[in-house]
Amino acid sequence: MRAQSRLVAGTTRRGFTLVELLVVIIIIALLAGLVTAGLAAAMRRAKRARITLEISQLSVALQKYKDQYGEFPPDFSVPWNTTMDGVSYGPRVVVRHLRKAFPRYTGNANGIVNFQGNGVGALDPAEALVFWLGGLPDAQGVPSGFCKVPAQPFLLPGQNTNQSTSRTLPLFEFEETRLADRDNDGWPEYYPPGFVPGQDPPYVYFAAWPAFYNDPHQHHRYHDAARYPRGSGAPSWGVARPYALAGSSGLRWVEPRGFQIICAGLDRHFGTGNGPKFFPSGANYSPEDWDNLTSFYEGTLEDASQDSTLNP
What we know:
By secondary structure, this protein is an alpha+beta fold. It has one domain. It has 7 helices and 14 strands. A 4-stranded antiparallel sheet has the order 7-11-13-14. A hairpin with a 2-residue loop joins strand 13 and strand 14. The N and C termini lie far apart (87 Å).
């Protein structure tokens, strides 16, 4: 009995105390937080990388357009009724391009395309990207190229079966599920991967035409509220404007002889402010500008501002 008692007395039962359990739970929570944060950051990088790649592909398609038609196309950012020196600059810019790109086009007196009740003056800088790279939309709104009849390149598919069946191929293969016609004017926009078509901001295209625009930032803009009245509870996209080159003499575009494609970034907001915004310094940027993705830098605008090769 005494031996058994000694055995029982010498046996100890060891378990976790409350403090030890709390320490283990805290450590697990911290590790889970680190993993979750790292995973979220990796997903953000992957989303941005995909958008950057697509912007690069769109840029290649625009270069193909220039090689084929002689210059980069207009972006329709100048309001159609804007006049300078007594000249309506909206139509003037478009007509000039049509005469160069489609010299045998026999349009109306103003050389303005018209179909489905809307002329090209109805386009905006988002719709222009799809129109020039994809051509005329078919009945489902899918870009289907331009008609190969030299005098009538803007015939709709099926509009005249004797002439419109032979068509050019789109210069960019748009993913149909990411096309949407938000304002129902017959001209679709194209939305970045992961964005909601018709709800989030689309890709925006700006063409640098200094010969026609004295101040590109005065007219070159894309503003959701200007074209699409929205409810008071709807989030704003801000205003997309082309970026100016910091340190240049006068107001000079980034890519002054080319174009800019702008994505609103993962915050779905282009930014705010009325004046020019300077790349890469970030002068005059609003907080929403910093994560924007563009055709002239492989990364966010915030990355560019910290790039020592751009900001020595």
